C-alpha cells in the first residue's frame, strides 16, 4: 500500500513537520514516521551595487551598497575588488535587522587599481541551502580621476536653506608631489584658485 499526499501553492507557512501514520487493522497498532519539510525561497534577482559616483580620486573614500533579493535562507554577502576578497575592515556595520544589504567603505589606493587604471568591485550573494545552493554575482567597474585636474571634495548631494557649505578644491597630483618634496616649484607656480557659482566669480 502506498499513501500519497500532494501539497500545492506552497508558502512559508507550509514549512513544518509532516507525519505519516499507518494503522494495522487487526491490532490497531500505529506506526509513525516524521520528516521535516523545509521551504526554500530562491532570490528573485542578482545583487545590485549602488554607487553615487562612477569615478574617484586616490585617497578618497569609496562607499558602495550591495542589495540582494529576498531569499530563504538569508543570503550571505561578500565583496571583492579585482577578484580579491576584501578585508573585514572594509565592511561597514549596519542595523542587524537589514539582512539583504551590505555596505562597503575604503580609501582608494594605487594598490586597488588594475594596469588599466580602474578597479572592479564585485558583490556576491550566497544562499547556503543544503538542497538548493545559490550563488549570484554583480560587478561594477569604477574609474579614477585624472590626477592633474582640480578635484572638489566635500560637496553633498543636496542642501537646505541656511546650510553652511564647506568644500575644498585641490589638485591631488601637485599636492602629493609637494608633500613628497618633489617638484615643489610646480606648486609655487599656481597663482590662485578661483571659485565660480553658476559661472559667476564668488
TrEMBL record:
<dbReference type="InterPro" id="IPR013783">
    <property type="entry name" value="Ig-like_fold"/>
</dbReference>
<protein>
    <recommendedName>
        <fullName>Ig-like domain-containing protein</fullName>
    </recommendedName>
</protein>
<dbReference type="InterPro" id="IPR036179">
    <property type="entry name" value="Ig-like_dom_sf"/>
</dbReference>
Amino acid at each position: 500500500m502506498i499513501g500519497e499526499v500532494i501539497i500545492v501553492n506552497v508558502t512559508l507557512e507550509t514549512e513544518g513537520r509532516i507525519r505519516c501514520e499507518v494503522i494495522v487493522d487487526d491490532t490497531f497498532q500505529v506506526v509513525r514516521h516524521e520528516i521535516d519539510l523545509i521551504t526554500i525561497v530562491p532570490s528573485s534577482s542578482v545583487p545590485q551595487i549602488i554607487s553615487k559616483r562612477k569615478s574617484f580620486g586616490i585617497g578618497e573614500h569609496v562607499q558602495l551598497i550591495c542589495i540582494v533579493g529576498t531569499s530563504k535562507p538569508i543570503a550571505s554577502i561578500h565583496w571583492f575588488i579585482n577578484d580579491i576578497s576584501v578585508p573585514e575592515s572594509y565592511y561597514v556595520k549596519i542595523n542587524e535587522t537589514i539582512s539583504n544589504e551590505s555596505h562597503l567603505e575604503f580609501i582608494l589606493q594605487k594598490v586597488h587599481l588594475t594596469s588599466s587604471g580602474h578597479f572592479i568591485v564585485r558583490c556576491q550573494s550566497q544562499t547556503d541551502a543544503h538542497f538548493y545552493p545559490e550563488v549570484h554575482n554583480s560587478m561594477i567597474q569604477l574609474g579614477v580621476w585624472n590626477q592633474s585636474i582640480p578635484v572638489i571634495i566635500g560637496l553633498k548631494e543636496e542642501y537646505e536653506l541656511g546650510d553652511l557649505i564647506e568644500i575644498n578644491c585641490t589638485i591631488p597630483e601637485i599636492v602629493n608631489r609637494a608633500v613628497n618634496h618633489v617638484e615643489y616649484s610646480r606648486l609655487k607656480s599656481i597663482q590662485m584658485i578661483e571659485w565660480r557659482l553658476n559661472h559667476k566669480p564668488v
